[in-house]
Amino acid sequence: MRRLMLLAALLSLAGCTCTPDPLITPQSTGEPWDTTYLISADPGVVTDADLRAHTTKLTKHYWKYNQVEGVIWPGWRSKASLEFPDHYGTGGDGAIFTGFALATYSFEYGTVGGVHARNRAMNTLRGLYWLTHVAGPGVICRSVWPLAQKEKWNYPDRWSRRINDGFVHEAPEMFAPWGPNFPAAAYYTRGTKDQLTGLLTGLTVAWIAMKDVIGVRPLIAKIMENLRQHLVKHNWKIRDENGKNDTNADSVSRLIRVQFDALYRHTATLTQPADVVAGLEAEYIKNFRVRSVENVPNIANNYSQYYAHNLRISRGFSIWLLETDAARKKQVVEFILKDVWRYTRRHQNAWLAAIVAAVDPGNVEAKGVLRASLASLSLKPLRGWGSPYAGQKHAPKLTAVLQGCDRNWVLPPHLRKPTNYFTWTKRPWDVGQAQDKEGRLEETGLDFLAPYWVGRAFNGLN
After folding, report:
1. DSSP notation for 156-199
2. Which 3 state secondary structure label does DSSP give 103?
3. 254-305 per-position pLDDT tens digit
4. Where are the domains of the chain?
5. How far is Cα of residue 111 from the mean position of the Cα atoms in its chain?
6. How far apart are CA 33 and CA 317, in angstroms?
7. CA pair distance 72, 195, nearest whole angstrom
8. Kind and range of the H or E element at 200?
9. How far apart are the C-alpha atoms of 107 and 450, rounded to whole Å?
10. Are 380 and 414 contacting, i.e. CB atoms less than 8 angstroms apart?
């Protein structure tokens, strides 16, 4: 209620602040890091065939440079002179986006089939198993990497702060499904409900799209059982193997609890007796709730915590995918349309648009946003040179956000700053602090692949 009162007060004080200062086009230098050519690039000339070709290119690139044992990793160059990355970053969101990668490749398999798509999904599920078991059954890790190649992560030097905080440890070789054992590893815990959101999204899609692949559902059921046992042990708080954490984003309640229970009531059919499963179903129905008056201030996320939109819609999407009751399914669609999409529909956000097009098939606007934003993103280099507008001030004030005119600041995706994992979690007008003349970062391409395969799976794309 206090959030609503504050929002009302701010709206009453809001003046006309809806005109952004014009961006200044920098002088072209011709240097390798010069991205001024993107300003005149035209996404309108990108064809459906171009999108399919870009998908193939990004998929090959991802499996060569952006994953280890199925776990996602942003690439990193030890020398700026290198054409391709030879190291990895210090990624702290591996669990979220390994989950999104699992959803991506599961949808690919469910849409086009084939042994290669199946293996990509299975290898990613394998990596997700590593993330949820290397520190102990059901313990969520943000990232994990093999000690035999520790120099590629500059371990332990670049991890010293996290080591000192007590959330980076080492583990011996361990069992792995569908292949040789996982190697001795270092891992980073400090899990959050954001990480769990991605894990659950991936597991949900794999449960549905890969149901015909032998061994997939039993492995998902095992992961879910271990996650639940560890969460119950700690009163539904996310904790490491020592029962510790230092984040306030650790409570599995409200929407994310509905997301968890939506999947667990299905996976428990493989791990629990029938009477327990019946009880889980009844409890899920009793506690089902996706909309709340507390969602009204979600518009403020356009000013800060933009990533929250992506987490909320992913939770809702998971629930919608698993729901069979028409009335509850309709509630989820209302949540997605009224509590997320209404604030973001003009942001050229392909991930949100793909999900909206899936749950609301007649939404022509969402399909158009999906197609246009992917076309734009396909023009952006994976190498992190930076936006051609980097270093300029370009963001709406809070009053402009609350008036709903933040759309005037939105930039096409190919003109935004580079990101470690997923451009859709960043504000759509963010150009970054400065041009990166070394360009050591290598984006994963997942922010294109994930909405692309959701779009293909639900006819949002050709």
Report:
1. TGGGHHHHHTT-EEEE--B--TTSSPBPSEEEE----HHHHHHH
2. helix
3. 999 999 999 999 999 999 999 999 999 999 999 999 988 777 778 899 999 9
4. 64-213+225-251, 290-447
5. 20
6. 38
7. 13
8. helix 193-209
9. 9
10. yes
